[in-house]
Write a structure and sequence with these properties.
Main location: cytoplasm
Distance between the termini: 54 Å
GO molecular function: RNA binding
Protein name: SsrA-binding protein
Number of strands: 7
CATH architecture: Beta Barrel
Order of helices and strands: EHEHEEEHEEH
Keywords: Cytoplasm, RNA-binding
Strand order of the largest sheet: 1-6-7-2-5-4-3
Number of domains: 1
Helix content: 25-40%
Oligomer: single chain
Radius of gyration: 18 Å
Number of helices: 4
Organism: Pontixanthobacter luteolus
C-alpha cells in the first residue's frame, strides 16, 4: 500500500487534549515537541486513542520525558505491541531543554502536556506548557473572569 502524500494528511488533527490543565495551571509558555514513538503507538494515535489527563513531563539527564501518558495497545497489533503507559522521550532542541530545566529548577514551574496532535506533515507532536499551579482562590478568580468575559460578549452581541 502506497503512503499518502504529506498534502493529504490532516493539517492539525488533535488526538488528545488535556483541558483540565488550563484550569489547574496558569500556562506561561508553550513549546512544540516531537514524540519518539514505536510503530503501534503511531497507529493507535491515528485511530484517536490516547489520554494525557494524568500525564506530566520531567527532565532527566538532559532529556525530557513524557510520563504516564496512556496510549492503549493497537487493536490489530501482534506480540510486538507497545506498553501503554511507558515513558516516551520528547524531542526538543538543547536550548529549549535548558530553558525548561532552568524554569523548573529556579521558578518551581511544571511541564504539562496540553495536547497531542499530528502536524501538517503527519508527525506526532506534543504541545507542552510551562506552567505554575493555581491555588483554590486563583481558580475562583479564573472562573469569575471567564464568566464575565462570556457575559460581556453576549451583551455586546445583543446590542450589535
Amino acid at each position: 500500500m502506497a503512503r499518502p502524500k504529506p498534502e493529504t494528511f490532516d493539517k492539525h488533527k488533535v488526538v488528545a487534549e488535556n483541558r483540565r490543565a488550563r484550569f489547574d495551571y496558569a500556562v506561561e509558555d508553550k513549546f512544540e515537541a516531537g514524540l519518539a514513538l514505536q510503530g503501534t503507538e503511531v497507529k493507535a494515535l491515528r485511530a484517536g486513542e490516547a489520554t494525557i489527563a494524568e500525564s506530566y513531563a520531567e527532565a532527566k539527564d538532559g532529556e525530557v520525558w513524557l510520563i504516564n501518558a496512556n496510549i492503549p495497545e493497537y487493536s490489530h497489533g501482534n506480540r510486538l505491541n507497545h506498553e501503554p503507559k511507558r515513558p516516551r522521550k520528547l524531542l526538543l532542541n538543547q536550548r529549549e531543554i535548558n530553558k525548561l530545566m532552568g524554569a523548573v529548577e529556579r521558578k518551581g514551574m511544571t511541564m504539562v502536556p496540553l495536547s497531542i496532535y499530528f502536524n501538517k506533515t503527519g508527525r506526532a507532536k506534543v504541545e507542552l506548557g510551562l506552567a505554575k499551579g493555581r491555588k483554590a482562590q486563583d481558580k475562583r478568580e479564573y472562573i469569575k473572569d471567564r464568566d464575565w468575559k462570556r457575559d460581556k460578549q453576549r451583551v455586546l452581541r445583543e446590542k450589535g
